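Checklist before submission:
- one chain only
- standard amino acids only
- sequence pasted in full

Submission:
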Amino acid sequence: LEWAIVAAGAVAIASALAGDPGRWIHYIAKPATTFLVLARAWFACQPFDVRYRVRVAIALVFCAGGDIFLMLPLAQGFMLGLASFLVGHLCFIAAAVRGARFAASPWPFVAYGLVAGAILAVLWPSVPQPLQLPVLAYVAVLTAMAAQGAVRHRLLRTPSTFFLAIGGACFLCSDSLLAWDRFAGALPLGRLWVLGSYYLAIWFIARSVSGSAATGQ
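Returned file contents:
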């Protein structure tokens, strides 16, 4: 399954870089990669916490929905994609509080909040007024997800929590690159960096399912 994820992700990135000639391949490969990562989470090796696995799986379903909305030429595609990923991050947070109270350690929230705030401050003048409130809400939830993943690792210190923390950091990186590419100007090979870090993020989070029961939840 790991090689299938790598192959599908490579096709998704290559077809995105190809532009219009690779559009239909991209339409298939992009969500297919996320669904393969979902399968990786669902068929994780024991031991795992069932509730944790279910919440991660539901989050990945919403990520796949966000993938579809963002890539299709729909009038409200960006807003629908934003909403789908926002719900996905809420599900990731619900998984990350298993065995670790929300914001039990404040320092990851302070650190991630400063990073997200700095990025948002730079991009804010370029964000269209109708999108400012949705983007602000999304950034808050995304930052909380990454920070809570770090909190969980800080408190529990297992390989599972490490993977979750790395996945959250990669997600913040991916979405920051996406926001910069969309609002501040096109990044060189932007889709490579955005999709590459995104697929790393969801793979690390899916990988965190294995061994999640060892946290004593």
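Reviewer check: The chain is about 75% helix and 0% strand.
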